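Notebook entry, cofactor series.
This is the third protein in the set we're modelling with a bound small molecule. For this one the ligand is glutathione. I'm keeping the input format identical across the series so the outputs can be compared line by line later. Sequence and SMILES below, as received.
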Amino acid sequence: MKLYYTPGACSLADHIALTESGLSFEADKVDLKDKTTENGGDYAAINPKGYVPALGLDDGGVLTENVAILTYISDRSGRLMPGGDLGRYRLLEALAYISTELHKGFAPFFKPGSSDEDKAAARKTLGNRFALFEEQIDGQEFILGPEMSVADCYLFVMLFWAKGKVDLDLPPNLTSYFDRLSKREGVRKALSEEGLD
Ligand SMILES: N[C@@H](CCC(=O)N[C@@H](CS)C(=O)NCC(=O)O)C(=O)O
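Returned structure with ligand:
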């Protein structure tokens, strides 16, 4: 498997998930402006969507979209998925929320020319949307219970942006959750491989 990523982008979630999963993989850095990869690939041909992440599969196929890639990593490794009858659906519920309600909520902070009003409105919305997880994490180790899941990998990146790009004041449970995740070996390894430590 080969992960196509850009340092600090949402593909960091997949990078952390792969590292934590124990699956063997390679990583290839994408220059999003030139649509080239560090190993000399034509990224526009690899992933016509033009954005990261993409996961090159061993049979030559390419999988895109964080929700699909993260679920695939969890299925392939048999790890990073909550247990119980509803575990798989709780995971998809969390991934969908992170993707559509949090990830896309950061758009004004990445889009050149966004107004201060747009950024202020986005900051407020993000604060409200993080609040749901602040309640959910109360008294538990990870977002879906006592075991880490790929949803934690994705939420970690949202918190990483909230601190680094948005300067959002995170509430106490999410602050200690972020600190706990930051200390994990797999998380540190992925950050280090992206030059972010
Ligand atoms: N729907 C995609 C969105 C991925 C996405 O937003 N990627 C950003 C980085 S976080 C990107 O590559 N942006 C560059 C571009 O769109 O040209 C997913 O969830 O995987």
